[in-house]
Amino acid sequence: MQLPEPTEPVTAAASSRPDASGSGRIPRRVVLLGSTGSIGTQAIDVADAAPDRFRIVALAAGGNNLDLLARQAVHTRAAAVGCAAVDLATLEDALRRACDEASVTGYDPELFVGLGAATAVAAWPEAEVVLNGMTGSIGLEPTLAALAAGHMLALANKESLIVGGALVKRAARPGQLVPVDSEHSALAQALRAGTSDEVDRLVVTASGGPFRGRRRADLANVTPEQALAHPTWKMGRMVTTNSATMVNKALEVIEAHLLFDVPLEKIDVVVHPQSVVHSMVQFTDGSTIAQASPPDMKLPIALGMGWPERVPGAAAPCDWTKATEWTFEPLDEEAFPAVRLAKEAAASGGTGMAVYNAANEEAVDAFHDGLIGFTDIVDTIAAVLAQHAESGELTLQSVLAAEKWARSAARARIGRG
To answer: Is 80 exceeded by the pLDDT of residue 22?
Structure first.
Protein backbone atom coordinates (compact mmCIF):
# COMPACT_ATOMS: atom_id res chain seq x y z
CA MET A 1 0.00 0.00 0.00
CA GLN A 2 1.43 3.31 -1.08
CA LEU A 3 2.16 5.94 1.56
CA PRO A 4 2.40 9.57 0.48
CA GLU A 5 5.91 10.74 -0.23
CA PRO A 6 7.31 13.81 1.56
CA THR A 7 6.52 16.03 -1.44
CA GLU A 8 3.18 14.43 -2.30
CA PRO A 9 -0.09 16.00 -1.09
CA VAL A 10 -2.05 13.78 1.30
CA THR A 11 -5.43 12.56 0.05
CA ALA A 12 -8.23 14.85 1.26
CA ALA A 13 -5.99 16.26 3.98
CA ALA A 14 -3.23 18.47 2.69
CA SER A 15 -0.43 18.93 5.16
CA SER A 16 -0.73 21.95 7.44
CA ARG A 17 -0.85 24.82 5.00
CA PRO A 18 -0.43 28.60 5.13
CA ASP A 19 -3.50 30.62 5.92
CA ALA A 20 -4.86 33.19 3.51
CA SER A 21 -2.54 35.90 4.75
CA GLY A 22 0.52 33.68 4.53
CA SER A 23 1.37 34.55 8.13
CA GLY A 24 0.91 31.15 9.65
CA ARG A 25 -0.61 27.68 9.39
CA ILE A 26 -4.20 26.53 9.34
CA PRO A 27 -4.25 23.58 11.77
CA ARG A 28 -5.16 20.20 10.38
CA ARG A 29 -8.63 19.12 11.54
CA VAL A 30 -8.43 15.82 13.46
CA VAL A 31 -11.06 13.33 14.65
CA LEU A 32 -10.10 11.04 17.55
CA LEU A 33 -11.73 7.61 17.87
CA GLY A 34 -11.04 5.96 21.21
CA SER A 35 -10.23 9.35 22.70
CA THR A 36 -10.19 8.23 26.34
CA GLY A 37 -7.67 5.44 25.74
CA SER A 38 -3.88 5.65 25.78
CA ILE A 39 -3.57 6.70 22.12
CA GLY A 40 -6.41 9.20 22.33
CA THR A 41 -5.23 10.95 25.48
CA GLN A 42 -1.70 11.26 24.12
CA ALA A 43 -3.05 12.59 20.81
CA ILE A 44 -4.77 15.40 22.70
CA ASP A 45 -1.45 16.15 24.41
CA VAL A 46 0.21 16.30 20.99
CA ALA A 47 -2.47 18.64 19.67
CA ASP A 48 -2.23 20.86 22.77
CA ALA A 49 1.52 21.16 22.29
CA ALA A 50 1.19 22.05 18.59
CA PRO A 51 -1.96 24.19 18.20
CA ASP A 52 -0.64 25.59 14.93
CA ARG A 53 -0.59 22.05 13.49
CA PHE A 54 -3.69 20.31 14.86
CA ARG A 55 -7.23 21.07 15.95
CA ILE A 56 -9.45 18.34 17.42
CA VAL A 57 -12.87 18.68 15.76
CA ALA A 58 -14.60 15.47 16.88
CA LEU A 59 -14.24 12.77 19.54
CA ALA A 60 -15.67 9.30 20.15
CA ALA A 61 -15.16 6.76 22.91
CA GLY A 62 -16.76 3.60 24.19
CA GLY A 63 -18.05 5.10 27.41
CA ASN A 64 -16.05 3.34 30.10
CA ASN A 65 -14.73 6.75 31.14
CA LEU A 66 -17.60 9.07 30.35
CA ASP A 67 -16.43 11.89 32.61
CA LEU A 68 -13.06 12.00 30.83
CA LEU A 69 -14.76 12.04 27.43
CA ALA A 70 -16.89 14.98 28.53
CA ARG A 71 -13.86 16.87 29.86
CA GLN A 72 -11.99 16.20 26.61
CA ALA A 73 -14.92 17.50 24.59
CA VAL A 74 -15.12 20.71 26.59
CA HIS A 75 -11.34 21.15 26.52
CA THR A 76 -11.09 20.72 22.74
CA ARG A 77 -14.48 22.29 21.91
CA ALA A 78 -15.04 19.36 19.59
CA ALA A 79 -17.95 19.98 17.22
CA ALA A 80 -19.09 16.34 17.43
CA VAL A 81 -18.96 13.86 20.32
CA GLY A 82 -19.84 10.17 20.17
CA CYS A 83 -20.27 7.58 22.90
CA ALA A 84 -21.25 3.95 22.33
CA ALA A 85 -22.33 2.87 25.81
CA VAL A 86 -24.75 5.58 26.95
CA ASP A 87 -27.98 7.21 25.86
CA LEU A 88 -28.34 10.80 24.70
CA ALA A 89 -29.57 12.15 28.05
CA THR A 90 -26.63 10.63 29.92
CA LEU A 91 -24.10 12.09 27.49
CA GLU A 92 -25.78 15.50 27.65
CA ASP A 93 -25.68 15.41 31.45
CA ALA A 94 -21.97 14.52 31.47
CA LEU A 95 -21.21 17.41 29.12
CA ARG A 96 -23.21 19.85 31.28
CA ARG A 97 -21.19 18.83 34.33
CA ALA A 98 -17.92 19.21 32.46
CA CYS A 99 -18.95 22.65 31.22
CA ASP A 100 -19.85 23.72 34.75
CA GLU A 101 -16.50 22.50 36.11
CA ALA A 102 -14.62 24.43 33.42
CA SER A 103 -16.89 27.51 33.64
CA VAL A 104 -17.69 27.12 29.93
CA THR A 105 -20.94 28.39 28.44
CA GLY A 106 -22.47 28.10 25.00
CA TYR A 107 -20.80 24.79 24.07
CA ASP A 108 -23.32 22.72 22.07
CA PRO A 109 -21.73 19.93 19.99
CA GLU A 110 -23.58 17.45 17.80
CA LEU A 111 -23.96 14.18 19.72
CA PHE A 112 -23.98 10.55 18.60
CA VAL A 113 -24.77 7.60 20.86
CA GLY A 114 -25.08 3.84 20.54
CA LEU A 115 -23.12 1.24 18.62
CA GLY A 116 -22.84 3.39 15.50
CA ALA A 117 -21.49 6.47 17.29
CA ALA A 118 -17.84 5.99 16.34
CA THR A 119 -18.77 5.21 12.74
CA ALA A 120 -20.78 8.43 12.49
CA VAL A 121 -17.97 10.48 14.02
CA ALA A 122 -15.42 8.84 11.69
CA ALA A 123 -17.32 10.27 8.72
CA TRP A 124 -17.58 13.77 10.25
CA PRO A 125 -17.50 16.09 7.23
CA GLU A 126 -15.25 18.72 8.84
CA ALA A 127 -12.45 16.19 9.35
CA GLU A 128 -9.21 15.99 7.43
CA VAL A 129 -7.55 13.25 9.49
CA VAL A 130 -9.19 10.48 11.52
CA LEU A 131 -6.98 8.91 14.19
CA ASN A 132 -8.49 5.51 14.96
CA GLY A 133 -7.17 4.62 18.42
CA MET A 134 -9.93 2.13 19.24
CA THR A 135 -9.05 -1.32 20.59
CA GLY A 136 -10.28 -4.45 18.87
CA SER A 137 -12.07 -5.34 15.66
CA ILE A 138 -14.96 -3.07 16.65
CA GLY A 139 -12.85 -0.42 14.90
CA LEU A 140 -13.43 -1.94 11.44
CA GLU A 141 -16.65 -0.13 10.54
CA PRO A 142 -15.30 3.29 11.66
CA THR A 143 -12.15 2.62 9.61
CA LEU A 144 -14.23 1.93 6.51
CA ALA A 145 -16.41 4.98 7.21
CA ALA A 146 -13.38 7.28 7.46
CA LEU A 147 -11.95 5.94 4.21
CA ALA A 148 -15.30 6.22 2.41
CA ALA A 149 -15.56 9.85 3.55
CA GLY A 150 -12.19 10.56 1.91
CA HIS A 151 -10.37 11.36 5.14
CA MET A 152 -6.76 10.46 5.74
CA LEU A 153 -6.77 7.60 8.27
CA ALA A 154 -4.03 7.56 10.91
CA LEU A 155 -4.40 3.96 12.03
CA ALA A 156 -3.56 2.80 15.54
CA ASN A 157 -6.42 0.28 15.54
CA LYS A 158 -4.44 -2.49 13.88
CA GLU A 159 -7.26 -5.00 14.28
CA SER A 160 -9.49 -3.25 11.74
CA LEU A 161 -6.87 -3.63 9.01
CA ILE A 162 -5.97 -7.15 10.07
CA VAL A 163 -9.49 -8.56 10.16
CA GLY A 164 -10.62 -6.48 7.18
CA GLY A 165 -7.56 -7.29 5.10
CA ALA A 166 -8.24 -6.82 1.40
CA LEU A 167 -11.58 -5.17 2.24
CA VAL A 168 -9.79 -2.23 3.88
CA LYS A 169 -7.08 -2.13 1.23
CA ARG A 170 -9.69 -1.88 -1.54
CA ALA A 171 -11.39 0.99 0.31
CA ALA A 172 -8.18 3.01 0.77
CA ARG A 173 -6.86 5.21 -2.00
CA PRO A 174 -3.07 5.61 -2.37
CA GLY A 175 -1.74 7.75 0.44
CA GLN A 176 -4.96 7.64 2.47
CA LEU A 177 -3.81 5.18 5.13
CA VAL A 178 -0.93 6.08 7.47
CA PRO A 179 0.30 3.88 10.36
CA VAL A 180 0.50 5.03 13.97
CA ASP A 181 1.84 1.92 15.71
CA SER A 182 5.47 2.66 16.58
CA GLU A 183 6.72 -0.32 14.59
CA HIS A 184 4.86 0.58 11.41
CA SER A 185 5.67 4.24 11.75
CA ALA A 186 9.31 3.18 11.95
CA LEU A 187 8.97 1.03 8.84
CA ALA A 188 7.26 3.84 6.93
CA GLN A 189 10.12 6.16 7.80
CA ALA A 190 12.84 3.64 6.95
CA LEU A 191 11.19 2.73 3.65
CA ARG A 192 11.87 6.27 2.44
CA ALA A 193 15.51 5.21 2.10
CA GLY A 194 14.89 3.12 -1.01
CA THR A 195 12.43 1.97 -3.65
CA SER A 196 10.04 -0.94 -3.20
CA ASP A 197 12.17 -3.05 -5.55
CA GLU A 198 15.17 -2.51 -3.27
CA VAL A 199 13.46 -3.86 -0.13
CA ASP A 200 14.71 -7.31 0.88
CA ARG A 201 12.77 -7.78 4.12
CA LEU A 202 11.15 -6.03 7.07
CA VAL A 203 12.36 -6.59 10.63
CA VAL A 204 9.74 -5.88 13.29
CA THR A 205 11.15 -5.44 16.78
CA ALA A 206 9.49 -6.73 19.96
CA SER A 207 10.25 -5.84 23.55
CA GLY A 208 9.67 -9.46 24.55
CA GLY A 209 7.09 -8.39 27.13
CA PRO A 210 7.27 -9.44 30.78
CA PHE A 211 8.16 -13.08 30.01
CA ARG A 212 11.14 -12.68 27.70
CA GLY A 213 13.49 -15.66 28.05
CA ARG A 214 10.96 -17.99 29.64
CA ARG A 215 10.21 -21.40 28.21
CA ARG A 216 6.66 -22.56 27.50
CA ALA A 217 6.64 -24.74 30.62
CA ASP A 218 7.50 -21.66 32.71
CA LEU A 219 4.36 -19.85 31.50
CA ALA A 220 1.73 -22.31 32.69
CA ASN A 221 1.09 -20.60 36.03
CA VAL A 222 1.41 -16.97 34.95
CA THR A 223 -1.16 -14.73 36.66
CA PRO A 224 -3.12 -11.87 35.07
CA GLU A 225 -1.21 -9.42 37.28
CA GLN A 226 2.10 -10.72 35.95
CA ALA A 227 0.86 -10.57 32.36
CA LEU A 228 -0.06 -6.90 32.80
CA ALA A 229 3.37 -5.93 34.16
CA HIS A 230 4.87 -4.77 30.86
CA PRO A 231 8.46 -3.57 31.29
CA THR A 232 8.27 -0.69 28.79
CA TRP A 233 4.84 0.41 27.59
CA LYS A 234 1.72 1.49 29.47
CA MET A 235 -1.27 0.14 27.55
CA GLY A 236 -4.78 -1.17 28.12
CA ARG A 237 -5.58 -4.68 29.36
CA MET A 238 -6.11 -6.29 25.96
CA VAL A 239 -3.01 -4.85 24.26
CA THR A 240 -0.78 -5.48 27.30
CA THR A 241 -1.90 -9.11 27.52
CA ASN A 242 -1.40 -9.48 23.77
CA SER A 243 2.13 -8.18 24.22
CA ALA A 244 2.79 -10.83 26.88
CA THR A 245 1.55 -13.65 24.61
CA MET A 246 3.21 -12.09 21.53
CA VAL A 247 -0.20 -11.96 19.84
CA ASN A 248 0.29 -8.21 19.56
CA LYS A 249 3.50 -8.77 17.60
CA ALA A 250 1.73 -11.34 15.46
CA LEU A 251 -0.93 -8.79 14.58
CA GLU A 252 1.78 -6.24 13.79
CA VAL A 253 3.45 -8.65 11.37
CA ILE A 254 0.17 -9.07 9.49
CA GLU A 255 -0.40 -5.31 9.58
CA ALA A 256 3.06 -4.72 8.07
CA HIS A 257 2.31 -7.25 5.34
CA LEU A 258 -0.93 -5.46 4.45
CA LEU A 259 0.38 -1.90 4.76
CA PHE A 260 3.56 -2.31 2.77
CA ASP A 261 2.73 -5.23 0.42
CA VAL A 262 5.73 -7.25 1.60
CA PRO A 263 5.29 -11.07 1.57
CA LEU A 264 4.81 -12.71 4.97
CA GLU A 265 7.92 -14.83 4.51
CA LYS A 266 9.96 -11.62 4.20
CA ILE A 267 8.86 -10.19 7.56
CA ASP A 268 10.86 -11.21 10.62
CA VAL A 269 10.49 -10.56 14.34
CA VAL A 270 13.48 -9.83 16.55
CA VAL A 271 13.38 -9.28 20.31
CA HIS A 272 14.83 -5.93 21.37
CA PRO A 273 14.09 -5.35 25.09
CA GLN A 274 15.27 -1.72 25.17
CA SER A 275 12.44 -0.71 22.77
CA VAL A 276 14.54 2.06 21.20
CA VAL A 277 14.88 0.62 17.70
CA HIS A 278 11.24 0.40 16.68
CA SER A 279 11.72 -1.57 13.46
CA MET A 280 14.10 -1.92 10.52
CA VAL A 281 14.13 -2.35 6.76
CA GLN A 282 16.79 -4.53 5.19
CA PHE A 283 17.60 -3.66 1.58
CA THR A 284 18.87 -5.88 -1.22
CA ASP A 285 22.41 -4.48 -1.07
CA GLY A 286 22.83 -5.62 2.55
CA SER A 287 22.08 -2.26 4.14
CA THR A 288 19.66 -2.08 7.08
CA ILE A 289 17.90 1.19 7.98
CA ALA A 290 16.59 1.45 11.54
CA GLN A 291 14.39 4.08 13.17
CA ALA A 292 15.42 4.78 16.76
CA SER A 293 13.88 6.95 19.47
CA PRO A 294 13.09 6.55 23.18
CA PRO A 295 9.84 4.63 23.78
CA ASP A 296 7.24 7.40 23.56
CA MET A 297 4.07 7.02 21.49
CA LYS A 298 3.72 10.77 21.02
CA LEU A 299 6.28 10.67 18.20
CA PRO A 300 4.40 8.18 15.96
CA ILE A 301 1.06 9.77 16.92
CA ALA A 302 2.30 13.21 15.84
CA LEU A 303 3.80 11.82 12.64
CA GLY A 304 0.61 9.91 11.88
CA MET A 305 -1.59 12.98 12.31
CA GLY A 306 0.84 15.25 10.48
CA TRP A 307 2.11 12.89 7.75
CA PRO A 308 4.20 13.42 5.75
CA GLU A 309 5.53 16.33 7.83
CA ARG A 310 7.32 15.90 11.14
CA VAL A 311 6.19 17.83 14.20
CA PRO A 312 9.14 19.54 15.93
CA GLY A 313 9.45 18.66 19.60
CA ALA A 314 6.88 15.86 19.45
CA ALA A 315 9.06 13.69 21.70
CA ALA A 316 12.53 13.66 23.24
CA PRO A 317 15.33 12.22 21.07
CA CYS A 318 17.98 9.70 22.11
CA ASP A 319 20.69 11.15 24.32
CA TRP A 320 23.89 10.26 22.50
CA THR A 321 26.09 11.74 25.26
CA LYS A 322 25.31 8.78 27.53
CA ALA A 323 26.64 5.26 27.19
CA THR A 324 23.96 2.81 26.22
CA GLU A 325 23.54 -0.74 24.96
CA TRP A 326 21.03 -2.23 22.54
CA THR A 327 20.56 -5.98 22.28
CA PHE A 328 18.74 -8.14 19.75
CA GLU A 329 17.79 -11.81 20.02
CA PRO A 330 15.66 -14.23 17.99
CA LEU A 331 12.04 -14.92 18.90
CA ASP A 332 11.48 -18.25 20.69
CA GLU A 333 8.64 -19.61 18.56
CA GLU A 334 8.23 -22.72 20.72
CA ALA A 335 7.39 -20.65 23.81
CA PHE A 336 5.57 -17.97 21.81
CA PRO A 337 3.92 -19.55 18.73
CA ALA A 338 1.50 -16.66 18.11
CA VAL A 339 3.48 -15.13 15.22
CA ARG A 340 3.80 -18.40 13.31
CA LEU A 341 0.11 -19.11 13.84
CA ALA A 342 -0.90 -15.67 12.53
CA LYS A 343 1.21 -16.06 9.39
CA GLU A 344 -0.54 -19.37 8.72
CA ALA A 345 -3.97 -17.82 9.30
CA ALA A 346 -3.21 -14.85 7.05
CA ALA A 347 -1.80 -16.90 4.20
CA SER A 348 -5.28 -17.75 2.88
CA GLY A 349 -6.18 -14.07 2.50
CA GLY A 350 -9.71 -14.80 3.71
CA THR A 351 -11.35 -14.50 7.12
CA GLY A 352 -8.65 -16.44 8.99
CA MET A 353 -7.31 -13.35 10.74
CA ALA A 354 -10.83 -12.28 11.75
CA VAL A 355 -11.18 -15.67 13.42
CA TYR A 356 -7.70 -15.40 14.98
CA ASN A 357 -8.43 -11.98 16.46
CA ALA A 358 -11.93 -12.78 17.74
CA ALA A 359 -10.80 -16.03 19.37
CA ASN A 360 -7.94 -14.17 21.02
CA GLU A 361 -10.21 -11.45 22.43
CA GLU A 362 -12.49 -14.07 23.96
CA ALA A 363 -9.53 -16.02 25.36
CA VAL A 364 -7.90 -12.94 26.90
CA ASP A 365 -11.14 -12.06 28.69
CA ALA A 366 -11.44 -15.65 29.94
CA PHE A 367 -7.85 -15.57 31.21
CA HIS A 368 -8.48 -12.41 33.21
CA ASP A 369 -11.70 -13.94 34.54
CA GLY A 370 -9.75 -16.93 35.84
CA LEU A 371 -11.32 -19.48 33.48
CA ILE A 372 -8.18 -20.51 31.56
CA GLY A 373 -4.42 -20.36 31.97
CA PHE A 374 -1.98 -18.09 30.17
CA THR A 375 -0.81 -20.62 27.58
CA ASP A 376 -4.45 -21.53 26.90
CA ILE A 377 -4.90 -18.15 25.20
CA VAL A 378 -2.90 -19.03 22.10
CA ASP A 379 -3.98 -22.68 22.33
CA THR A 380 -7.58 -21.48 22.06
CA ILE A 381 -6.74 -19.46 18.94
CA ALA A 382 -5.12 -22.52 17.37
CA ALA A 383 -8.06 -24.78 18.20
CA VAL A 384 -10.64 -22.38 16.79
CA LEU A 385 -8.60 -21.82 13.63
CA ALA A 386 -8.42 -25.59 13.15
CA GLN A 387 -12.23 -25.69 13.03
CA HIS A 388 -12.59 -22.71 10.70
CA ALA A 389 -13.82 -23.10 7.13
CA GLU A 390 -13.45 -20.19 4.71
CA SER A 391 -16.71 -18.50 3.70
CA GLY A 392 -15.98 -17.26 0.18
CA GLU A 393 -15.72 -13.61 -0.84
CA LEU A 394 -14.30 -11.22 1.73
CA THR A 395 -16.98 -8.66 2.61
CA LEU A 396 -17.90 -6.76 5.75
CA GLN A 397 -20.71 -9.25 6.28
CA SER A 398 -18.42 -12.28 5.91
CA VAL A 399 -15.90 -10.77 8.32
CA LEU A 400 -18.58 -10.06 10.92
CA ALA A 401 -20.05 -13.55 10.47
CA ALA A 402 -16.61 -15.16 10.87
CA GLU A 403 -16.00 -13.15 14.03
CA LYS A 404 -19.37 -14.16 15.47
CA TRP A 405 -18.67 -17.82 14.74
CA ALA A 406 -15.14 -17.61 16.21
CA ARG A 407 -16.38 -16.01 19.44
CA SER A 408 -18.96 -18.74 19.83
CA ALA A 409 -16.41 -21.48 19.12
CA ALA A 410 -13.91 -19.95 21.56
CA ARG A 411 -16.53 -19.64 24.30
CA ALA A 412 -17.54 -23.27 23.78
CA ARG A 413 -13.94 -24.41 24.14
CA ILE A 414 -13.40 -22.21 27.20
CA GLY A 415 -16.57 -23.48 28.80
CA ARG A 416 -18.54 -20.25 28.69
CA GLY A 417 -21.20 -21.61 26.35
So the answer is: no
